[in-house]
Amino acid sequence: MTNLNLKKFLLIFSLLPIPLSLISGCSFDEDDTEENAVYVYNWGDYLDPATIEKFEEETGISVIYDEYDTNESMYPRIAEGAVHYDVICPSDYMIQKMIANDLLQPLDFEKLPNAKKYIGADFFEQSKMFDPENKYSVPYCWGTVGIMYNKNLVEEPVDSWKILWDEKYKNEILMQDSSRDALMIPLKLMGRSLNETDKDEIAKARDMLIKQKPLVQAYVVDEAKDKLISGEAALGVVFSGEALMIMLENEDMDFAVPKEGTNFWIDSWVIARDAENVDNAHKFIDFMCRPEIAVINFDHLGYSTPNIAVRELEKDENYKNSPVAFPDPSIYENQETYQYLGNEMDRFYNRQWMRVKVE
Amino acid sequence: MFHSVTVRNLFLAPFVIWAGIFIFVPLIFIIWYGVTDAAGEFSLENLAMIFQTEFFRSLEMSVLLAFVSTAVCLILAYPLCLILVERAKSAGLIITLLFVLPLWMNTLLSTMAWQTILEKNGILNQILRLFSLPDFTLINTSAAVVLGMIYNYLPYMVLPLYVALSKIDTSVIEAAKDLGASTWQTFLKVILPLSLPGAVSGVTMVFIPALTTFAISALLGGGKLLLIGNVIEQEFTFEYDWNLGAALSIVLMIFIVLNMILTFIFDKEEI
């Protein structure tokens, strides 16, 4: 081989994986519209696949199921109308944003008897923070955000967000990597609302996070779970559903909801305005509200369920008696849920968070 | 080989179409989005955003880290390639192939492996603890990100440099030695200038991906480091502000074009 050929050979050789990974990286959305189908767009791993099979068997409706990983990545796909999904499962503030942008259609509760019967009234009440007339959404999962801590490494009682600013735990703290979840903590410590819109107050909260940054091991999202199970960190801000999973895997860990208050989040089923299979969509949502189905999903996920019949049906004592999965109702009294604060405010929150990260 | 111009053009057509659809058109889109606002009106506001603290600092950090990792790659690659060239050609090819092989593995996977190695309770620290040595925590720092960049991009430096060095006629080096040049002088006056084109294309091939990466910094930086690549990725996927994302990409392109101009000046030979 001459040098030139060798060079070309090596170049081609080294570049080969690039087109390959490009091909394997893209997937095609099925556009073969089936006659009797329902298009569902849900969070990644957010229900037990067995429940879909049961639904298909019982109704003969085929479910075309796709997943997303953040509300923000789901939103443009719905807004652009590139793919017509029927049922979606966004979070509170995102539902509010979708209502504001006319992307959802009112539900027909006559077609949702299980939702009326089994979804707790408290959760519809709390949903009014983002769906004021309870017209568009049926709660599916809910939870709080709190502090997961290692009982062997943290001696003092954990009951306040303040512990995340304690120098003792330098490099032992995991924080959430998203603007609202990160800024929520100092806002609550300052006694403000987590839907704060006063820019000076948000800037103050940002400065508290900048001050905290040297103590933080990492800003994480899904990695929090693995890192806390394996003991990488002593303290971490996590969602209550993850907390339950972590505690089952690692007995040293415990979960506390700080007294200053926290985010009470709800993910709910909604139907897209452009849905083509509205009847099937209602059937799907109602099926998911059926207690026997809800309990399968609850076992699979570990996230708290708004379905009031599930605790009765739950067989696993670890879950049934868990104060994390079924907390004392007083824990979520007066808790706030995120609201959509408008595009400009969203940007402001994100910019403050960027500021923390570039410091 | 192809005598008729028509036949030659016919063979050229796939490339022209490819370049048009996948290079030219997207570039137009990027520039279009970059100089307009959400309403589609002409605006340079998004381009000016780069001067806002948050964006400027992330650009600074990216340029710095890309510069450091390119420099380290260059320093590592030179002696390695010199050794490779001195070996018999066949051995050199095998060793070079060994360098290329990791490229077949997905960058994400190999970077995640580094995560596992560098973690607080990672493989490295477990080995250190075995020998009662103190922990060494590199993860979630800019040093870890630089390490990830060097690991991933070193082959791109080694390959062009190796080819350039192996093209040097050994008789030239022998002549230099004959005329009394020391090893060091031979390197500085003969090998270095002759291999410069290879080094320059190596620098380009390392600097550009290092400048634009967002995966390595996300995995090894623990979210504590915001590079311009991460910002652009967020603008497109999370913030859904394509205008700002495109404008920042244009700013980044300026750096890449600068780099390519430098390459062009140094490298008058074919690639």
Characterise the protein shown here.
The complex is a heterodimer of chains A (359) and B (271). Chain A is α/β, with parallel strands linked by helices and 359 residues long. Chain A folds into two domains: 37-141 and 266-327, 3-Layer(aba) Sandwich (D-Maltodextrin-Binding Protein, domain 2), CATH 3.40.190.10; 143-263 and 339-358, D-Maltodextrin-Binding Protein, domain 2 (3-Layer(aba) Sandwich). Chain A is built from 16 helices and nine strands. Chain A has helices at residues 3-15, 17-25, 49-59, 71-80, 92-100, 113-118, 121-127, 179-189, 199-212, 223-229, 240-249, 278-289, 291-301, 310-313, 317-320, 343-358, and strands at 37-43, 62-68, 87-88, 138-150, 173-176, 216-220, 235-239, 253-256, 264-271. In chain A, strands 1, 2, 3, 4, 5, 6, 7, 8 and 9 form a nine-stranded mixed β-sheet that branches. In chain A, α3 links the parallel β1 and β2 (62-68). The model of chain A is unreliable at 1-32 (pLDDT under 50). With 271 residues, chain B is mostly helical. Helix content of chain B is 76%, strand content 0%. The longest helix of chain B has 34 residues, at 53-86. The chains are: A alpha/beta (359), B mainly alpha (271). The interface between A and B is large, with 34 and 39 residues.
Which parts of chain B are unreliable, with pLDDT below 50 for 5 consecutive residues or more? none
The name of the CATH superfamily of the largest domain in chain A reads Periplasmic binding protein-like II
Unreliable stretches of chain A (pLDDT < 50, length at least 5) are 1-32
Largest sheet of chain B: none
Q: First CA to last CA of chain B: what distance? A: 22 Å
Helix content range of chain A: 40-55%
CATH architecture classification of the largest domain in chain A: 3-Layer(aba) Sandwich
Q: Percent of residues of chain B in beta strands?
A: under 5%
What is the rounded Rg of chain A? 23 Å
Order of helices and strands of chain A: HHEHEHEHHHEEHHEHEHEEHHHHH
Regarding quaternary structure, what we see is heterodimer
Number of helices of chain A: 16
Question: What's the shape of chain A?
Answer: globular
Helix-and-strand structural type of chain B: mainly alpha
User: What is the assigned CATH homologous superfamily of the largest domain in chain B?
Assistant: MetI-like
Largest sheet of chain A: 9 strands, mixed
Number of strands of chain B: 0
Name the overall outline of chain B. Answer: globular
Number of helices of chain B: 12
Q: What is the second-level CATH architecture of the largest domain in chain B? A: Orthogonal Bundle
Helix content of chain B: over 70%
